[in-house]
Design goal:
Number of helices of chain D: 6
Order of helices and strands of chain D: HHHHHH
Order of helices and strands of chain B: HHEEHHHHHHHHHHHHHHHHHHHHHHHH
Radius of gyration of chain D: 20 Å
Largest sheet of chain B: 2 strands, antiparallel
Strand content of chain D: under 5%
Strand order of the largest sheet of chain B: 1-2
Helix content of chain B: over 70%
Radius of gyration of chain B: 28 Å
Shape of chain D: globular
Chains: A mainly alpha, B mainly alpha, C mainly alpha, D mainly alpha
Structural class of chain D: mainly alpha
Helix content of chain D: over 70%
Largest interface: A-D, 75 and 85 residues
Strand content of chain B: under 5%
Oligomer: heterotetramer
């Protein structure tokens, strides 16, 4: 858009991505962790769309579209997994789900 | 575009349908698919030939690049010329008749669908072999027919002898194929292409001093493959054992089509061989020796299928003799007539076996009355193979012997003696089976029409097949100008003498044969035991090979070195894993941190490499 | 004229009209339900209970605003705000009429025309579920939670057929802008039969309309799909813990949603502000005629009425209607208000259907509700969409 | 005007994003995340991607986040407890995150030194027609694959969650 440098969008995208990473690394609730992933995806989408706008192409938007589709599929399956985990282990603490070690 | 690809495709479709769904399908369905696809192939062959007649120049069809590496392009290309047209007619026509015959012969066997699926698979590979426009595709067909041959020899896989015979055929063929593939590689290295037309034009353009060594090596290596596939000395030992397979298989694969693939291949490479005279001399030697020795063994065998198997080896020896004598057309001519009468001999033998449930000639006899159709058709075939005038075998054998005489007179005389022996052992089998009193048990009976009709068709073809002179068709300008009547008379007389001798030994004076055998003593035992070739091979090749494999390769190489190395690597990996396992904390957040580290690394690597600009 | 000022004026007008409608649609509903059930309905406050909504509003305003101690305070307060604001936003893209000229200013009777207006409405309507869900969850109490869960599943479940039903007329009209969609329905078959998307070739959207209407019932939590607030099993569903103004907000949101979906149905299927028949057959005089008829009826019934109060209130209304009818004969007024009349008539008819259904049909069981959408409504919507797409593609 | 809108909604997005990470209760995080998504939708619209702006709200806020909220309610997730099981994340997380942000900033600073304005040429690229045309021509195969992916996800989710109905 006129007057808004591309870099601003990319900065915002980077900041949101960083927030997502922080959530992923530092949060203990598995659902919140999952939401942090969505936050990262959103941040990346913003980059895609900003580049698409900058280059005057529609391709970046298509990528963002596919990211959304994949995110929807991922959310459906991921949440089903979380529900199953919760049924079996009665916890959402990510650090307690550590039976896949050693 | 004549859509040549359809010809091999039909049997392949039949193989897939029967192989995948045949188990649950009815016999009628399996029959319809198996016969129908071969019939379609046959009809399409006829249509194609009619469209392309008179086929004076080869017809090439390119479909797609199979292998494309640098300049090398090996395509899935099919070609049709007169040589492959003859082969096509033999394969699809005789194949069709044998398929029909098999309905009756295999009617009560288990694995019915499996049998026909394999037969169709064989047809696919054989047609690929015949139609291939380059050496590699030919090799595909070559190996494929070997595979189907192995599968069909071991069809009665519950019989130990059948699986052993299958293995033997496969392994012996492998030796030949090794040479063959080396030959193909040498062609590729020297000419940079595998396409027949290009290779042969480059061969023809090669100066003689360059070509002699290379071409002779190539031709000899190809010949190794041919001897393996076509059961010639020294690799013929698998064919008699291959009679363990069902009789239609023996007729189709081990008499009419597959075993003649070597002849076809040498004829196909005739240009190459003509530029390697030494190799061609080898072909002639191998041919004449095989023809003679196999015929002598055939004299003494009592298993009807073994008799015909040695006869096949001997007859293919004739074909090789023709090829070696530079009479390629004559060789293919004999291939053509041989396909009819030898398929008929096997099918007739199958009918006899079907009638008495027995393969041993000593327990047959007098079947003339019980199985008249079988008798008369077999008689046609026997007449043809014995070279009785104006049957198909007469014309083709005549061509060969003439060429042999032109090439080297002593080979002609060996050929004549072999012809006499051929007539003798074939009629010996006929007389033992059909004359005299029935010596076996049970009630012999004629086969059903579905079996006798193909016999009749092949009988007619055996009698009249020679009037279509394949040799002239393939080589319009005959290499031999003169036609020596005296030589023809001699060979015919030899054949008739063989028949007469057989008649004396087994019809007029039964018992004389045993007396003669006793007189000959050692010689008879030597021939009866097939010159102990199997035993010699066992002692000289198999034993050392197996022993060496066990002690050196298995215990020494495999267990000590390879296993040691593999296990050592495994142990190291486990040791390393014990350390790296500490990373596997089970905490997702730790993993996330590692991912973060990786992402950072990737980012830095990218910006260091100049990305982001 | 300053475009921002114009926008403000338009926004004020639309908001005012909307709030007024919200206030009085409850009165209308109560009256209609009452008459369906052979009652009189509100009658005490004002003539024919006309001041009842005002009284109700005052009552709710002055009731004690309870904030239960066990709730999540932030979300508890956020939920009604979310519900009502989302319900009101969608109205901004609905086109009520064509471009008009008032005192030299040309403008569209629409607050904003987005080129993805339909998607905007869908997006907003997909968010309305949060109001309910958050309310139920923040209440921290079992009935609201159950109501909220039911509501979430129901709204997600019925949003799909709704989306399918919305997509089909888009294909027929070939645009995502609500204004363009209305304009595309402008012609008449044979000179008199309206080419509304409901009837439009090549793919008449009869099934699409039905699917839309049924899904709309569920989306707005109306009977027969008002499971989230089924009073005989869940007390009052998600808003059990709410009182006074916050309760009123949910109430308002529900009616605002109803108005939105009815407007959407009008725009998507019934030709928006376009008249039922073309102007040469006198469609411009239809409003005057209708008002005059209503006025005459009220005068006829009011003058000899049995109730003392009616003897002046009904005739007064009748006279007012007749005056309005007269106003509609003035060309300037006619030009501005006739499209509006048609729009309101169609939307009103649909709203009446909503109320009528509420007065007629019983509530479904929850499993019936879910099975209905997943096994019938959604497949029907998909089939309708595919057939429509096929027909449109064939014509193109 | 555009810059003002950008600044407002970028600020909103960052504030919401911070809250997503900092709030201790999953429901709060989810709601703040919706805030991020809606702000981003506005930014998409600002960039001319109207269709994606709508899709962002419909798909992310209207579908995915509803799922999240419902699941949070179903499992009745409370505020999370602190735990320090992952020493790796505890110690290396923050420095690495800072390094990542620094690297990103560095790359961006190198790539776009100053003043490059997001192109005005883009306006009008991003309507439903443009997206649809690209989706059904150039990206037809990925589109179909995505539909299969979604189908698989539906089946997978049903299979995973089915036990509940026993």
């Amino acid at each position: 858009m006129d007057g808004v440098p591309l870099t601003w969008f990319l900065m915002l995208s980077a900041v949101l991505f960083g927030l997502g990473v922080a959530g992923f690394v530092f949060r203990r609730n598995i659902i919140t962790v999952f939401m942090s992933i969505e936050l990262m995806l959103n941040a990346v989408n913003l980059s895609f769309i900003a580049f698409a706008c900058r280059l005057g192409q529609v391709d970046g938007q298509i990528f963002a579209f596919f990211v959304m589709v994949v995110a929807a599929a991922e959310a459906a399956v991921g949440l089903a997994i979380i529900l199953t985990v919760f049924r079996n282990r009665a916890t959402l603490q990510i650090d307690e789900l550590d039976s896949l070690k050693n | 575009m004549q859509h040549l690809w359809l010809i091999p495709l039909f049997p392949l479709a039949g193989f897939l349908v029967n192989g995948l769904m045949g188990r649950r399908a009815s016999k009628a369905f399996v029959n319809a698919v198996a016969i129908g696809t071969v019939l379609l192939s046959f009809l399409w062959t006829l249509k194609t030939l009619a469209a392309l007649a008179p086929l004076e120049t080869p017809h090439l069809e390119r479909y797609f690049a199979w292998i494309q590496v640098g300049d090398l392009r090996i395509g899935y290309d099919l070609a049709l010329d007169r040589l492959s047209a003859v082969m096509l007619l033999v394969v699809t026509g005789v194949g069709l008749l044998i398929h029909i015959y098999a309905i009756g012969y295999m009617g009560h066997e288990g694995g019915y669908y499996r049998f026909f699926a394999y037969m169709n698979l064989f047809m696919f590979f054989m047609l690929t072999l015949v139609l291939a426009a380059n050496f590699l595709l030919l090799f595909v067909g070559w190996e494929g027919v070997g595979l189907s041959s192995y599968l069909l020899i071991g069809f009665y896989f519950l019989r130990h002898s059948a699986t052993t015979a299958g293995n033997k055929a496969f392994i012996v063929n492998r030796i030949g194929d090794f040479g063959f593939s080396l030959g193909i590689l040498l062609i590729l290295v020297n000419f940079g292409t595998l396409e027949f037309a290009e290779v042969f034009s480059k061969v023809a353009a090669m100066p003689i001093e360059v070509s002699a060594g290379v071409l002779t090596t190539i031709a000899l290596l190809l010949l190794v493959g041919a001897t393996g596939k076509s059961a010639q000395i020294p690799l013929y030992v698998w064919l008699p054992d291959a009679m363990e397979g069902p009789t239609p298989v023996s007729a189709l694969i081990h008499a009419a089509t597959m075993v003649t693939a070597g002849v076809y291949m040498v004829a196909r490479s005739s240009v190459l061989y003509l530029h390697a005279p030494l190799a061609l001399d080898c072909v002639a030697w191998i041919g004449v020796l095989t023809a003679f020795f196999a015929a002598t063994i055939g004299l003494t065998q009592y298993d009807i299928k073994k008799v015909f198997a040695y006869s096949t080896i001997s007859q293919i020896g004739y074909m090789f003799l023709a090829l070696g004598a530079r009479a390629f057309g004559a060789g293919i001519f004999h291939l053509w007539s041989h396909a009819f009468f030898k398929a008929l001999l096997f099918l007739g033998a199958g009918s006899v076996i079907h009638a008495v449930g027995q393969q041993d000639l000593r327990y047959m006899g007098g079947l003339r009355r019980h199985a008249p159709v079988t008798f008369w058709t077999l008689l046609c075939a026997a007449a043809a193979i014995a070279g009785v005038p104006f049957t198909s075998g007469f014309f083709s054998k005549d061509e060969i012997l003439l060429a042999a005489h032109h090439y080297s007179p002593w080979m002609y005389w060996v050929g004549v003696v072999t012809a006499a022996m051929t007539a003798f052992y074939v009629f010996r089998a006929i007389f033992l089976a059909f004359f005299g009193e029935f010596r076996g048990e049970g009630h012999p009976h004629e086969s059903p029409p579905v079996m006798t009709l193909p016999l009749i068709a092949l009988g007619v073809l055996s009698l009249v097949g020679g009037f279509f002179n394949v040799a002239r068709w393939l080589e319009p300008e005959p290499t031999l100008a003169h036609h020596d009547t005296a030589l023809v008379v001699v060979s015919v007389a030899a054949g008739l003498a063989g028949i007469a001798l057989a008649g004396v030994f087994y019809v007029l004076r039964p018992g004389l044969a045993d007396v003669v055998a006793e007189r000959l003593g050692f010689l008879y035992r030597l021939v009866y035991n097939k010159y102990f070739v199997d035993e010699v091979y066992q002692a000289l090749v198999v034993k050392p090979l197996v022993g060496g494999s066990r002690d050196v390769l298995w215990q020494g190489m495999d267990v000590e070195v390879i296993d040691g190395a593999v296990n050592g690597v495994g142990l190291r990996a486990r040791g390393l894993g014990r350390v790296l396992r500490l990373l596997q904390s089970g905490y997702i957040r730790s993993y996330a941190t590692w991912v973060l580290l990786g992402a950072l690394g990737a980012l830095l690597a990218m910006s260091w490499a100049g990305g982001g600009r | 004229m300053n475009p921002y000022l114009l926008m403000v004026v338009k926004a004020a007008l639309v908001t005012g009209a909307l709030l007024f409608t919200l206030l009085y649609i409850q009165w209308v509903e109560r009256k209609i339900i009452a008459h369906i059930q052979c009652r009189l309905g509100p009658y005490r406050v004002g003539p024919h209970g006309l001041l009842q909504p005002v009284a109700d509003t005052l009552k709710l305003l002055f009731k004690e605003d309870l904030l239960p101690g066990h709730v999540n305070r932030f979300l508890f307060l956020l939920a009604p705000v979310l519900a009502v604001s989302l319900a009101l936003i969608s109205i901004s893209v609905i086109p009520f009429g064509p471009e008009i000229e008032v005192a030299g200013v040309r403008t569209w009777v629409q607050l904003a025309d987005l080129n993805v207006g339909v998607l905007f409405v869908l997006a907003i309507s997909s968010l309305t579920v949060y109001g309910v869900v958050l309310a139920g969850w923040a209440s921290n109490s079992k009935y609201p939670l159950l109501g909220a869960l039911r509501s979430a599943a129901q709204m997600v479940g019925y949003e799909l057929p709704l989306g399918m039903a919305v997509a089909a007329p888009l294909l027929v009209s070939g645009s995502l802008s609500l204004r363009e969609i209305v304009l595309s329905q402008q012609h008449y078959y044979g000179g008199f039969f309206p080419a509304w998307n409901l009837f439009r070739l090549p793919a008449p959207q009869v099934f699409g309309f039905l699917v839309f209407l049924v899904a709309a019932f569920a989306e707005t939590n109306r009977l027969p799909f008002d499971l989230p607030e089924a009073e005989n099993e869940l007390v009052a569903g998600f808003h059990t813990e709410y009182s006074s103004l916050k309760f009123a907000s949910f109430f308002m949101a529900e009616y605002a949603n109803m108005i939105t979906v009815c407007s959407m149905a009008t725009v998507l299927f019934l030709g928006g502000w376009l008249p039922l028949f073309p102007a040469q057959y006198g469609s411009n005089y239809a409003p005057a005629l209708a008002l005059a008829a209503a006025g005459a009826l009220w005068l006829y019934h009011g003058l000899p009425s049995a109730f003392r109060r009616d003897r002046w209130s009904l005739p007064a209304a009748g006279v007012a209607a007749l005056v309005a009818a007269g106003l509609f004969l003035i060309p300037a007024v006619q030009a501005i208000f006739t499209p509006l009349f048609w729009f309101l008539a169609k939307t009103g008819l649909l709203l009446f259907t909503f109320i009528w259904v509420r007065g007629t049909l019983p509530r479904l069981r929850y499993d019936q509700l879910m099975r209905f959408t997943w096994t019938f409504l959604f497949p029907l919507g998909v089939a309708n969409l595919m057939v429509t797409g096929l027909l449109v593609a064939l014509r193109a | 005007m555009a810059a003002a809108i950008f600044l407002i909604f970028a600020f909103l997005a960052v504030v919401c994003g911070l809250n997503v990470v900092l709030r201790r209760h999953p429901v709060s995080s989810a709601l703040w995340l919706i805030g991020v998504m809606v702000s981003l939708a506005v930014l998409y619209a600002l960039l001319g991607a109207h269709f994606l702006a709508a899709a962002q709200v419909i798909v992310y806020a209207g579908a995915i986040m509803v799922l999240f909220v419902i699941v949070i309610m179903l499992v009745n997730a409370g505020a999370e407890q602190r735990s320090t099981a992952s020493r790796m994340a505890q110690h290396a997380g923050l420095p690495l995150l800072a390094a990542l942000l620094g690297a990103l900033g560095y790359v961006m600073w190198r790539a776009a030194p100053a003043g490059k304005v997001a192109g005005a040429a883009a306006v009008g690229k991003g309507t439903a027609q443009d997206i649809g045309r690209a989706l059904f021509t150039t990206y037809l195969l990925p589109f179909e694959l995505a539909s299969i992916l979604v189908l698989i996800a539906v089946v997978g989710a049903v299979v995973l969650a089915y036990k509940e109905m026993d």
